[in-house]
Amino acid sequence: MPTFGAGIWHFATYKDRYATDGYGPPVGLLEQIDRAGAVGELSVVDLNWPFVGFDGTLDDVKAALAKNDLKAIAITPEIYTRDFVKGSFTNPDPAVRKRAIALMHDATEVALELGCSYVKLWPGQDGWDYPFQVNYHDIWQLALDGLTELCSAHPEINYVIEYKPREPRVKIVFPSVARTLLGIERVGLPNLGILLDFGHSLYGQETPADAAQLAIDHGRLFAIDVNDNMRGWDDDMVVGSVHLVETFEFFHTLRRNDWDGVWQLDQFPFREDSVQAAKQAIRFLKAIHRALDVLDDDALAQAQAAHDALAAQRLVQNALLTSMAGLENA
Amino acid sequence: MPTFGAGIWHFATYKDRYATDGYGPPVGLLEQIDRAGAVGELSVVDLNWPFVGFDGTLDDVKAALAKNDLKAIAITPEIYTRDFVKGSFTNPDPAVRKRAIALMHDATEVALELGCSYVKLWPGQDGWDYPFQVNYHDIWQLALDGLTELCSAHPEINYVIEYKPREPRVKIVFPSVARTLLGIERVGLPNLGILLDFGHSLYGQETPADAAQLAIDHGRLFAIDVNDNMRGWDDDMVVGSVHLVETFEFFHTLRRNDWDGVWQLDQFPFREDSVQAAKQAIRFLKAIHRALDVLDDDALAQAQAAHDALAAQRLVQNALLTSMAGLENA
Amino acid sequence: MPTFGAGIWHFATYKDRYATDGYGPPVGLLEQIDRAGAVGELSVVDLNWPFVGFDGTLDDVKAALAKNDLKAIAITPEIYTRDFVKGSFTNPDPAVRKRAIALMHDATEVALELGCSYVKLWPGQDGWDYPFQVNYHDIWQLALDGLTELCSAHPEINYVIEYKPREPRVKIVFPSVARTLLGIERVGLPNLGILLDFGHSLYGQETPADAAQLAIDHGRLFAIDVNDNMRGWDDDMVVGSVHLVETFEFFHTLRRNDWDGVWQLDQFPFREDSVQAAKQAIRFLKAIHRALDVLDDDALAQAQAAHDALAAQRLVQNALLTSMAGLENA
Amino acid sequence: MPTFGAGIWHFATYKDRYATDGYGPPVGLLEQIDRAGAVGELSVVDLNWPFVGFDGTLDDVKAALAKNDLKAIAITPEIYTRDFVKGSFTNPDPAVRKRAIALMHDATEVALELGCSYVKLWPGQDGWDYPFQVNYHDIWQLALDGLTELCSAHPEINYVIEYKPREPRVKIVFPSVARTLLGIERVGLPNLGILLDFGHSLYGQETPADAAQLAIDHGRLFAIDVNDNMRGWDDDMVVGSVHLVETFEFFHTLRRNDWDGVWQLDQFPFREDSVQAAKQAIRFLKAIHRALDVLDDDALAQAQAAHDALAAQRLVQNALLTSMAGLENA
């Protein structure tokens, strides 16, 4: 079985521009960690930083993680809150850019202190909304410069960019796997890679398995997240609720390449019980894992060599549509 | 088991604006019928009319159908070829409108002669491409007037509108289930209903099961087609290749309402063997049928009464992800 | 010149699921009204209710409006906050449905007290997220029952439904003009109509001018909102920033039908000065108004009668691409 | 004024999968050239090759071009017709791959003979339709190998890849500017660049001006095409019919970078007069050219340095919405 993980925000409650009073009462950081522990299947979590609304110490966090048999795999600095709504790396104000990078340096220290594998950069406010709003050459250069400054300062830890086509900005500077790889190659540092969020890839009109293969072929697939959506937006639904075949193909591509990282959840269960949502996601991922064991790899390779869609689909359905047998009550 | 059917064009070869020489050598009408027969699971077919490129008689067609144990369920008049590229019912030229309706009258005679259940109207060229190109009031009125004239002339047979958001026109006058029902209610005749194409509904941002329920609640769901796509275009892929859960939900809604029409294929296997594509589609539909038998309807109704997505998904996965067990070699 | 208006939220600051601390410091209700007044062009506003975070009286609100030469045109009850995240009319819990309708009754009282033209219903949480989550027949019936109960209780005032394809729910029960008209016809009351939001129509794959025409032809176009987006989401950008031609066509359709309601803004200037955003929108709308005066209606009608896209576009460009001449410094 | 050009197919008639008898009677190659000449504003054309259905000589073509004051700027080999429906470079059959590359070699000879600037490669059939159909690593490698073989054999001429997200394949191997640049950098030859089709970029969720800037910054923007669409498909509508602001921004980015290539049309006037469609496109492009002259570049640079969308939009509207003044009868 793979190692399972989740972003800690999976266990928070949410606001949006309409339900500004939140989809439920606030859940504090330690309670979020306890909920992650209550899933019973998670080994690692990704933690936002600063710990908003938390007045305890880092040791308190460590203790909460330990109590729940969890490790922090990553720190995600919050470079998308009020200070940074016009961008972090690419903010038009040099003073804000400086603050953003300082925040990322601090987040790196926390990540090192917690023994994390990487710092996750999600520049969701770095981009533009309107035609003619920015100079595209300049904003891209600022993004690369900021990454270079940050990553070269901390060769002892990895950084990942989680690309996303849009939201909250109408357009984000790192919208796709290929654009992100172009930027990473330009930066040219070994400790900068990609976190591929399955849902971002799906609604960005990519084929997630193809995006994973490309990142692997460039040696840059450092981490992955899964969830689901309706292909038009980052709905962050529970994995396995809509796009079963493409989820299966995504994990098949990872296995074919012997990629052995964490199978990590990035779901936003706005109206669902978050512990139950994680449990059900993992139940589905276990079925996928079984289907991978059952799939006839040789026959599939032969079908793919001929681009024979029907033969490939037949093998896939044989594996996937029997994958839950015996797991119904799991 | 349900009755299975297919549009006869499933067994043709295709052209598009690039491969103007076709995706394969032309396949004549009788050969198309033989291919439909070769699937071994089809009971009915929907025939385009006029029989383009066919110089035989209607009796020849009847004989070919009989030989293959097939019945014609419908006639689809070709109101979208060169004569009608600016519309059929709604063509700006009254003479062309007249020719279009004459063609539909003739198609009705053929349908009656063949004992069809309905005449299918697919007004794919009725619409607009550019902003400001048409007067929306006028074009809608022309569509309703044409339908009224046609359907009131033949109370002895049903007509169905196959709605579609777009292609070949950038916008089609009957783009969605609700718009089509509005028009049908305005026409107010009992013999005019809807053919709901699952793929059209899916890429039109509807929930196909919801669209089916609405049409049923209005007493207008006369026929259905299935296929699959990537939610952005009418790809007419083999059913079961992408959107398994929503296909399952679609058929679940039909069963819940005791809808017992034909399960009909509208696939375009551009680059695939058409007989094999139909066989594989039906293999999948049989798995869906089994899953419907297995699905815990009471528990699902309870989950739905509470809008409990997680409970519902769990039941669905239990049924769907075991549905192929034992059918692998079917 | 038309009467201009705006939703009062145009002058608030916003939160979303990432910038949970807001895109700026909170702006109180009275300050929002002052900002609306500062635009200098607005005559009416639409007010959310309850007045969240406001501890003054209704008289205070009246005074603030009067001071700024503003009238309340509508009240929008907040049926999409925490209590209602699983729906208002269609909530699975009958007690919540009751509370939602009670809130709408109360909002109606406030609207009457303020002399509003209508109460606006935006059931953004009424819908579903996941396949199989709801029974589509039941949820639609609940929506119609709730509307019937509400609207029949207050024949002295109008209600409008602001349809929207999605957000915050993945699917909303009133997603399109046609579906909403179907529901309104089923309810069958004269005081229930549509508020057509241009942006909702645009990203819902409608042609906004066609949607307006249909609502007018059913006698149900009670109000409109304008803004802009990238056709994939409700970006609520400043009107005139992207889709100039379709905005022009929308207003042309209103004029052709002698529709003389308020030209109302529903923009979310997340990162912009809200007063400036409104001013610039109105500057553009004035240019549109001039273009309508200049447009050669007879020639256009002739082009449309022939579905002649090129002739129509030529006339449109002549009017639109000269419309700002002399207004540059306005 | 810039040099204007067009793909010669602009002046053909079209088929699609429904109107298989064509949107009009066939138009022969020489007549297409005469129509291009009749526009009166075109200096160059891009020619498909082989000259399908043409039994004259290359000298006949040269004469027809000369007669119409036209030059061939490019040859587009038809690597997307029946032989190649499962791919050209990436066809699963090595013999077909060989034939495809042979065809491209031959096309190169024709291009050299005609004094063209480049050979255009549009691998529209190179990709996949179904999940699990291909091995993504292998298909990408085949694409790069084929390009390397071709381009290294002809250092005396340029090649351009016209990327496109989809159609006719559900997914194409070169779908975006960034993916194409990644491939080009991997190939590493100086004579391989990009033809950026504005419409492909637009419906591929890119910002076309940003895509152009990126290609320029990599030294690979060899050519451009313009047209328009509804952001969901490659509608190939007449430029200037929908997305005026983004078209303006696209050309502004080209000018800012002193890019001085041909302004080329890639329109498919299915139902319009092709000469008139080209004339009207060029009328609009001249208005854009005037707007570029009028646009206050310094003020815009200042607005962009601050990411000030409102200030930028204001300048843009001042230039764009006055640009047709005096050209109304052009």
Folded structure, characterized:
The structure is a homotetramer of 330-residue chains. Chain A is α/β, with parallel strands linked by helices and 330 residues long. Chain A has a single domain (4-277), classed as Divalent-metal-dependent TIM barrel enzymes (TIM Barrel), CATH 3.20.20. Helices cover 43% and strands 14% of the residues of chain A. Chain A has eleven helices and ten strands. Chain A has helices at 29-39, 58-67, 94-113, 136-153, 177-187, 198-203, 208-217, 244-256, 274-294, 297-305, 309-320; strands at residues 4-7, 44-49, 71-77, 118-121, 127-128, 158-162, 171-172, 192-197, 221-226, 263-265. In chain A, the strands form two sheets. An eight-stranded parallel barrel of chain A has the order 1-2-3-4-6-8-9-10, surrounded by five helices. In chain A, strands 5-7 form a two-stranded antiparallel ribbon. In chain A, helix 4 packs across helix 5. Chains in contact: A-B, A-C, A-D, B-C, B-D, C-D. Chains A and D meet through helix 4, helix 5, helix 7, helix 8 and helix 10 of A and helix 4, helix 5, helix 7, helix 8 and helix 10 of D.
